[in-house]
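$ ./design --mode recover --in tokens.txt
reading tokens...
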């Protein structure tokens, strides 16, 4: 007998990096399901505009995911104004591209602080709340780059491997509870983050709304692995059983090994500049902090 989708009406969802891109699309999709939405983002002005656009009970809260105190304040404010958080979507992240030997140290640190520590902060703060209530759903946004290493994005791929591995471990620890853990692994998404990136053969680019729809679907029918588009799942599974040479040959045949390495630097200049200014630890609202973590997903 097929499982019945869970009702999302009235559930409270907190989404990081939700002023634009996948985060904003997810906020809209959740609001369309009559969920109560808390948008967290370093760019408070854009977050407030997004909340006003969604209307209803949607709220916006300034959030620096790299600062535990800021993340805790975000969750506290969401619960004060909307009620107990039922879902956390750890979406905030950034991506700098280029050969590893040429990678700027500050760019490397930003990616690790935001993509890794930001996710860890969210998990460590929301899971005790879920455990106390005996329910909840944690959704971590990783990437298909979390399943393989691609030239031109070594640190980024490493951060997304971390998200996949940490999510799997936490899911196993919570196996006997009513807390769900899902890991979303999109391919190339038509956001600013993917500017200038060529497509892999046979794998279509998707829109932020496609990822948002997949997130809503997994909230209704929980599962761990969420590939967008879904075709990435079987491809990843087949390639995963091949020996090393076979996996690398398949990546070359699909052109996947050039997606990050051959990205057009001029087309990415605007994104890279904004991501470079999303400096971890800066106070929201400061001049340098205006360009924020939601640059990613």
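writing sequence...
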């Amino acid at each position: 007998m097929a499982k019945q989708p869970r009702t999302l009406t009235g559930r409270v969802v907190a989404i990081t990096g939700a002023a634009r891109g996948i985060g904003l699309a997810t906020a809209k999709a959740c609001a369309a399901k009559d969920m109560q939405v808390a948008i967290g983002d370093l760019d408070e002005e854009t977050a407030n505009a997004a909340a006003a656009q969604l209307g209803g009970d949607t709220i916006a809260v300034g959030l620096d995911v790299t600062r535990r105190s800021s993340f805790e304040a975000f969750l506290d404010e969401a619960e004060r104004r909307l009620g107990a958080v039922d879902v956390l979507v750890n979406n905030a992240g950034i991506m700098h591209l280029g050969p590893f030997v040429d990678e700027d140290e500050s760019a490397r640190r930003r990616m690790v602080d935001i993509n890794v520590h930001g996710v860890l902060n969210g998990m460590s703060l929301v899971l005790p709340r879920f455990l106390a209530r005996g329910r909840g759903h944690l959704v971590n946004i990783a990437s298909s780059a979390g399943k393989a290493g691609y030239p031109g994005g070594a640190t980024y791929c490493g951060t997304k491997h971390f998200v996949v591995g940490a999510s799997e471990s936490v899911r196993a620890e919570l196996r006997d509870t009513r807390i769900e853990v899902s890991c979303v692994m999109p391919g190339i998404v038509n956001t600013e983050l993917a500017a200038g990136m060529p497509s892999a053969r046979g794998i279509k680019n998707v829109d932020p709304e496609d990822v948002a729809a997949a997130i809503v679907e997994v909230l209704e029918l929980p599962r761990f692995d969420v590939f967008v588009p879904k075709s990435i799942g079987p491809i990843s599974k087949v390639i995963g059983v091949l020996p090393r040479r076979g996996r690398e040959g398949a990546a070359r045949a699909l052109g996947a090994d050039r997606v990050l390495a051959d990205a057009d630097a001029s087309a990415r200049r605007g994104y890279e500049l904004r991501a470079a200014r999303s400096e971890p630890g800066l106070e929201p609202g400061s001049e340098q902090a205006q360009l924020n973590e939601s640059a990613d997903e």
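exit 0
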